[in-house]
Amino acid sequence: MKHLAVLLLLLVSSLNAAVPAPSVFLIGDSTMANKPLDLPERGWGMALGEFLTDPAMVKNHAVNGRSTKSFIDEGRWTAVEAELARSDFVIIQFAHNDEKKEDPKRYADAATTFRDNLRRFVREARAKGATPILATPVARRKFDREGKLVETHGAYPDAVRIVAQEENVALLDLTAATNKWLQSVGDEPSKKFFMWIEPGKFEKISEGRKDDTHFVEAGAQKVAALAAAQIRQKKIPLAQWLK
Question: What pTM did the predictor assign?
């Protein structure tokens, strides 16, 4: 019996090894996107590969400044959809730019267009045999005078949660996770995770920067770790590919 158990374990291991690693497509905005390596800014999608068995699984199509609307209108979703194969995953994180009412090229109402666009991503990914994963937007670093983190995304996180429930889609609640994380770190200490850069430190931004939306490497790694933790905790199928 002991020898039979060993043989079964070897068989299962060999079958798992024979399964090719899926691609993990990321679509979203600047908080997730790839960044030039000669500057300190990092999207959390750049760090996600560190938590996977093969970093090359990540196909980061997130782009600075994009909303669900502009990502579709510019043909970016069509290009991603064309690449999708059965067993792939698509992590979808928008809202930062959908919120911008002053920009008709990007604005998508949280109660209508934004939800419709999320549904389109979900349904068309599934039609290709891929698994969609919705993510609420990461928090901005904004504290009030009492040191309490201020929610800046309005109705958008709930819109993502509603679509996830309606469509029976796995949800990474990064809004809740990053809110909790930043609140625990506090106002002043949390600057080290964001693009708060002293003047003269980098030639390309010699004037420095005070940016409460975009991450440096430590912030991107933390958000990626929070995403990986939820993938594991919620037993999303992608969890089998986590380290």
Answer: 0.91
